Amino acid sequence: MTVDRQGGLLAAWQTSSRVTAFLIENLPDEVWSSTIPGAPRRTVQMIGGHLHNCRCMWVKMLGKRHGLAVPRGVDRYRVSRRQLLPALTQSARAIAGLLEVGLANGGHLAGFSPPEVTHFLAYQVAHEGHHRGQIVMVARQLGHRLPAEVANGLWQWSKRGREARGDAPGRPHP
Predict the structure, then answer these.
(1) How far apart are CA 96 and CA 9, in angstroms?
(2) 3-state SS assignment for residue 71
């Protein structure tokens, strides 16, 4: 069986990014601005802003030399979900651009250690998965257990992948 490495890596990123957006879209309003138990100066909103801003930081550090546009960061203290979701779309495209640069360079992404594009993708997916888990845990701690269709939807990667490609209902997300 032949695997389309470029298509597979980009699809994996697009799906992971869509899972992040799916969670942000489906959070109860009460959770968005709630402080995190044990960390009274942090909110779920700040975690969402952090995800976007970290993507922007990587694009600035690794992609600027390749002519990739760096998306504008968000104020993680004030960003609304309405503002964050399009920002996440932009930063997801920019990360996809970094992956494309690495793939076009024989799988090498200069400036990341180790410099393989597959490691960079794994790092991005792990980072976002970590923070998605934080958000789900905080919601539970605050008494807002996510509905089953949302909690289970975080693991429905085939469905989120179809949404990311625009093949299924849901918010298309690159």
Answers:
(1) 9
(2) coil
